[in-house]
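Entry 14. Ran structure prediction on the chain below.
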Amino acid sequence: EDLTKARELFTDAIKEDPKYGKAAYNLAMACQLLSDSKCTMDAFRRAIDSDATDVESRIQYAGALIESGDPDEAIRQLTEALRLDPRADVALSHLARAYLDKEVWDRTIQLADQAIAVKPQNDQAYLWKADALRRRAAGEKDPAVKKATYAQAIETYRTYLRLTNFSTPAYESFAFHFIGFGLGSRRHADRQIVYAYQRSLAFMGLCECENKLGYS
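Output, structure tokens:
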């Protein structure tokens, strides 16, 4: 009910001032939590049209685009965001995710490493890097390289799991990461669900890598 009311208020604010970019951004976030994809996309585009230098809007819009299955447009938005702010670590990790969806493993790993270099605590970068390493290892022909790549993926998954091993409901403060990566697609958006879902992906990836290396 609060989100629905917020959507109404942000919509009214935009009617009062069509160039009110912050209202458009907040409308997009509310709509995404309400699983209203059309409203989300329209509001993000309005926010960017209102201020082409709004890096945060481009990053969040890109996350929604990735979730909707459009990594190419997400890449365009994130490339522009990084032109405006080359040290935007979340833009780098989102870009890594977009290339992961396009199955460009080396580019995913490169971008994840760049995000980690800017901010070593960027847990999403470790997750996407680990997934890319695991998938690259699966297609590797050289047994020695395959083994080394799986081993690297294991360490990367473990780093992600360590960084996200919260003893308190800390996920509640990480909407920035979760928006656009599973949260908006659920009928009743819940950060805890996304937090658990992403960690389960990491555990499954870790198990697969250990199995490939013959770990018990």
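Residues 170-180, 182-189 have pLDDT under 50 and may be disordered. Will compare against last week's run tomorrow.
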